[in-house]
Amino acid sequence: KYELGLIYVIDTCSAHCRFCYREELIARKEIEREDGSVASKATAKIPELVEYILEYNKIVEENGGKHPETNREKLREILMSGGDPMVLPNKKLAEWLSALADAGIECIRIGTKELAFYPDRFDQTFFDMLDNFNELFPEVQLRMMVHFNHPDEFLQKNKDGEYIENPEGGLMWIESTKRAVKELSKRYYITTINQSPFIKGINHDPDALRIMQRELKRNNINNQYFFCGRDIVGHKAFNLSIEDSWNLLNESQKGLSGVESTARLSITHYLGKTEVVAVTNEPIPGVPGTENGVVIFKLLRGAFDAPLKGKVAIVGRNPQAIWFSGYEDRVIYDEAGLFRKSMQDTSSVS
User: Fold this and answer.
1) Topology at the third CATH level for domain 5-269
2) What pTM, to 2 d.p., does this model score?
């Protein structure tokens, strides 16, 4: 769908996150595919994937640097996901990394929550494996896409439940997590990036999120996205409204520096990843439907060569909306096409 390839390399994790939208894979549910067949989602196989990458990039090369069907350049980046790839043994991880690099992939992302669940997984044997891989493929970059949702997952607390000041600066981290993060930071070929959903009753706290963003950046973990929850089964129990999510992120970034406050609020549309750019409180003079303010969406990424990237949609506010369908009756401007197809088959309000 995007400029990178997504592969499921395993269908298990160290824990089950209730808000996870990969339930079809984790639970091995059967789904209807585009060709009409019904089958459960499956994990990728190395030979088939390598063949696909080589064939795709061959077609790109033969057609002047763009694929004739997608108008995309060559496939150069892969996201290993699942499940959690870090549940795999080092030998299997090394097989995947080497196969992807041999196929010409220049950047490999590893999506994982193990840094929160089980930081000791990032032991010296794991880093030795990565260093050996880097010796063989020195130009291949690795990006650890980690998932901290709350500072309690990596910070120490005193007996009163307060975070502990580090006399050398910042706050005291859980030792095993700090060690793993330091080892990641030592390696020039690894970039560590955090992404997190907003979860009602868990991280619905701007002060906690401010601490999290500041501490992550202090320790060389970049803040990329906060996500509005997906419209999965039971999502009304734990998803915040879109407007509450935007206000939460905005409040959490007050007092942060520019490099600390780089995270954007994203919500996934079938057209592509979409940013919630702004929520206003005042009407736009002379524009009907803006009496209570507006919400502005912008397409960040898209299919094929992303022709709609940067296009926006403006809707009248609906404080209860937790999905796009909550705004279908109040669209003011939609050059992005976010509301051309009804999404009423998904839940819209809490």
Assistant:
1) TIM Barrel (3.20.20)
2) 0.92
